[in-house]
């Protein structure tokens, strides 16, 4: 372990603060470039403007919260590319810091916590989503934050368990209020509580199972519906108490409608293999040829699958809870996608499962430390090296010409 980590081995807060500052600097550098709307910003920025003005319903297939937060960024920083994306970068910083917190709370070891945070920041997709006004970044931040609160509650003194558990439930409600694909995590949390609590009364001390599940379910639902309050004040077609529930059915119909084929559509099974990334931008803008490619860091994407398999096999053999949770979190988060009734799939749907890959990687390195020695350091260098190599087409940096993208097209299936 590096000397500075040994110095702070039992002091996670200063390390978390350092990680948050570094992540925000990484995500925020040249955040306003490009100055035009990129990819799905063409849907969500106009919707945020309309919501900020309380004018009328727009982009009704998704809940309001993420668009409210994009609107808050516009209100704080102006209706410019910086305002559109400012809070997305903050959300991504929250994701990175939250992954650090999850590993620290789960292992009480600094090395895997820092490793997981670095892998998250450098996995490509977190960086790209940090710099675009879309819904997924906010949804992921609240899911990770909810998981942190629930795990934080697990070993809390009896008087603090309930508050932390309720905070976790609220976070998951906020995540669902950004995008419905967060809803299964409420169920995951309930199942995890029942499994981890079995035979271990020291976990979530003093919290009755019935109360825990009621707070988780009812609390998250209440918070979700509270985020619709601005819609009650629309100048045109406002929602009301009688129309709020039927409006959820309208949203469902919008989300499950059959859509025409799309250039960048892909099947769910291709996402972990990094087969079909998406160009968010590739054109001449702001006086230069620029590109933004949403693609996974190959070392994290493919190495993460190996780590998931290793953790799953290790759990089968040893029943080590950390291994089981590390593998199960990714497996559960990915397994929902074959069942979700979407007519089209896109690589960015894998954003949250891709974030979880950092956990089995870090846990596997920590669990088998005696065998792998300092391999994690070499692996982090590989991940960082790939990030530097791909940086120009992750960050909309100026490129030499129209065919510059060919340098980074590793697979034939890459666009």
Topology:
Layout: H1 3-7, H2 12-28, H3 41-52, H4 65-77, H5 81-107, H6 110-121, H7 125-129, H8 136-154, H9 158-176, H10 184-197, H11 209-226, H12 244-256, E1 278-285, E2 288-294, H13 298-318, H14 321-335, H15 351-356, H16 358-367, H17 369-372, H18 375-394
Helix pairs in contact: 2-5, 2-6, 3-4, 4-5, 5-6, 5-8, 6-16, 8-9, 9-11, 10-11, 13-14, 13-16, 14-16
Report what the structure shows:
The longest helix is centred in the N-terminal third of the chain and has 27 residues. This protein starts with a helix and ends in a 21-residue tail after the last helix. The protein is globular. The model has no long low-confidence stretch (mean pLDDT 94). Strand 1 and strand 2 form a beta hairpin. It is 60% helix and 4% strand. The chain is mostly helical and 415 residues long. Helix 2 runs parallel beside helix 6, helix 3 crosses helix 4 and helix 6 packs antiparallel against helix 16.
